[in-house]
Amino acid sequence: MINLDKKSGLGKESLIKMEQIDSKHAQEQGEKKQEANENISLGKASRLNNQFSTSIEHYTKALEIATEHEYKQQETEALVGLGHAHRGNNQFQTGIEHYEKALEIAKEHEYREQETEALVGLGDAYRESNQFQKAIEQYEKALKIGKKREFEDQYKETQVLLGLGDAYSGNDQFRTATEQYEKALGITKEYGYKQVETVALIRLGGVCRGNNQFETAIKYYDKALEFTKEYEYKHLETLALVGLGCAYRRNNQFETAIEHYTNAVEIARLHEYKQQETEALVELGDTYRVQNLFQEAIEHYKKALEIAKEHEYKQQETEAFVGLGDAYRMSYQFQMAIEHYEKALQIARPHEYKQRETEALVGLGDTYRVKNQFQTAIEHYKKALKIAKEHGYNQQERQALVWLGHAYRENNQFQMAIKHYEKALEIAKKHEPQDKYQETQVLLGLGDAYDGNNQLHKAIEHYENALGIAKEHEYKQLEAEAFVQLGDAYRENDQFQMAIEHYEKALEIAMRHEYRQQEAEGLIGLGDAYIVNNQFETAVEYYEKGLRIVKKHEDKQQEADVLVQLGDAYRANNKFQAAVEHYNKALQIGKEHGYKRQERRALSGLGEAFRENNQFQTVTERFKEGLDGAKYTQTEKQASEIAEGAGDRNDETTAENTMKEMSKIIDTHNESNQNLQTSNTSDVPQVLNIHCENGNNSDHKHIVNEIVSDETGNSADQLSVMGCSYENE
Predict the structure, then answer these.
(1) For residues 44 and 81, what is the distance between their CA atoms, to the nearest angstrom?
(2) 368-372, 433-437, 493-497, 641-645: range with lowest mean pLDDT
(3) pLDDT for res 660
(4) Mapping DSSP to helix (H, G, I), strand (E, B) and coil, where does residue 720 land?
(5) Cα 587 to Cα 379: distance, rounded to the nearest angstrom
(6) Strand, helix or coil at 78?
(7) First to last CA, the chain
(8) Are the C-beta atoms of residues 384 and 354 closer than 8 Å to each other?
(9) pLDDT digits (tens, 9 = 90+) for 626-648
């Protein structure tokens, strides 16, 4: 018989022991859960402080504990946190993987809040890696879940709407983006979420700026700035200031832009917002660069680069390298430009910064194009185009097609240029009306291609279309550019009055809005029109005005071009000394900066000036120098590439033909001297007959006149040579 008392006693002891074990286990479990929660909190704190590596360590520790002890909610939170941390560290693919794992658990256990957060995180990751369509899908799912629950947290709804707006904006769907931002703004006003309202205003400013609605953008940014100052949102204040800087810069109000960027840098430094400081410095670099203030631009890019390297802001480091590449390229330091673009590519490729990769490739293409290495340029543009197509970057795809059009056009492959411009135009027309700005740019490119192909009527048609859009949408800078291009086309078509009218319209807009580039182009165009119309003094006046602007903005290449044009104007007006002075100045700039085309043009002009002024010995030296200068000496390959370029061959051929003509004239001059020493003036008609047979007698009549006058005492107009008569000039 079993002793129940004894058994009962043993049972009590066991129960007590088991309770103690359970209590200890529960305590351990509670401690572990608390440890997991603490690591999640530490991970979040580190992440918000941009200490992403430390953040990842804490989230990983929390994940290990949660997985081991099956704390599903903590596991989900840790995975979402890891997604945020990796995304903040620009490791988008890793971030996406963690969000997807979190989403799977959240769905299984119906953690609706974590499910929404994971979807928003996925949307953010896809958006920041420029996968805009995927981002839109995730945000829409998050929005759908929220609406089913009637959005218990309206704050979360505003975040989803802002993310959705950003995705639509990145996908060039500006109207839809604006709708999302306005919805978010409405909620923030209703519930008094001032901080999120400020963010919404900054976003609206951004979409208006991207849509070239600069005045509206400035209003939104100013309102946001007002809130940031009132509520001391210092971080958002830097963002609003940077946004204002961008809007003013895009509107060519450079000094105002610099003021806002500088204020942003000061606040960022004071509060140690290192990432924002880096971004503001890059923007300052961009602003100085577009004003051709390359040294200042380089200084700011280098400061940004230093901070980015120190804090491992890889994306900003890439941006700084691209900016430096642009600055070196535009200041014609091509090797330095190539090196910096290559460095940008080295970072962009392993980190999958596809947009930055396309920018670096386009920069390399531009560099090789300016160096007349068109095939290499085209290869880089095609690589950029491929990436843009693969990732659905509509804007980059369109831009790559436009640059390919430029490369083919400058290489005189006009049909290929037209083909690529047409493709770019097709993309521009597919999207919302706000893409009219890009459409206008493409139409101008098409006009240039038809112009180069001597299809002036088609060129004018495209310029007129561009002008119509620019006027309708008040794209004043593009309107000025269209007027300049129309002026060029009418001038080439010998419609000088029409050309002058269009240049004057361009000049009026450019001066009113301080578009210095277009102002210079308008003035130079007027100079071109008046010189062709034989109004040399007026031409000189306009060239001098254009030259002053070009000098102020330190555009050395254009300065050399204008100096050559001034030389041409003085030479056409028989002011040979002034012509020679201007050609020599252009030649000096060309040699100093390696502008071979300008160097050749200056040498050719000098040769013509000396020829027309009958300085035969100097002529032969100058033309020989011009021919040698037409061939680049860096490498045989580069020399071959440039020699094959149609533009360079034309310059070379022109110099060669003029050399041949001069050789004939000089040979004849020498022959006439010998004949005159041994015979009488009856031999002179035979000498002159040689020139008549060679043609172009009107071009050389004053030279022949001088030869005859010097040697015989009779001017050419007193002689009739085989039916070839010369008249007094």
Answers:
(1) 7
(2) 641-645
(3) 54
(4) strand
(5) 32
(6) helix
(7) 149
(8) no
(9) 554 443 333 233 323 433 443 44
Residues 645/377, Cβ–Cβ less than 8 Å:
no
Look up residue 527 and give its amino acid: G
Q: Find out whether 437 and 399 touch, Cβ atoms under 8 Å.
A: no
Q: What angle do CA 207, 211, 216 make, to 5 degrees?
A: 70
Q: Output the six-digit token pair for 78.
A: 């840790």
Taking CA 578 as the corner, what is the angle to CA 572 and CA 582, rounded to the nearest 5 degrees? 95
- Which pLDDT belongs to residue 400? 94
Under 8 Å between Cβ of 145 and 114: no
19, with CB counted inside 10 A (0-12, 13-18, 19+), is exposed
Helix (H, G, I), strand (E, B) or coil at 725: strand
The answer to whether 230 touches 212, Cβ cutoff 8 Å, is no
Beta-ladder partners of 725: 720
* CA-wise closest residue to 85 among 61, 107, 69: 61
pTM of this prediction exceeds 0.90: no
The model's pLDDT over 124-159, given as tens digits with 9 standing for 90+, comes to 999 988 788 999 999 999 998 887 766 567 888 999
Task: Say how far residue 86 (Cα) sits from the centre of its chain.
Answer: 29
| Residue predicted with more confidence, 668 or 233 | 233
Check: CB of residue 467 under 8 Å from CB of residue 481.
no
Residue 382 in tokens: 């095609």
Burial (CB < 10 A; 0-12, 13-18, 19+), residue 366, is buried
Q: Answer whether 467's CB lies under 8 Å from 483's CB.
A: yes
- What is the rounded radius of gyration, in angstroms, for the C-alpha atoms of the chain? 36
Q: What does the chain come to in residues? A: 729
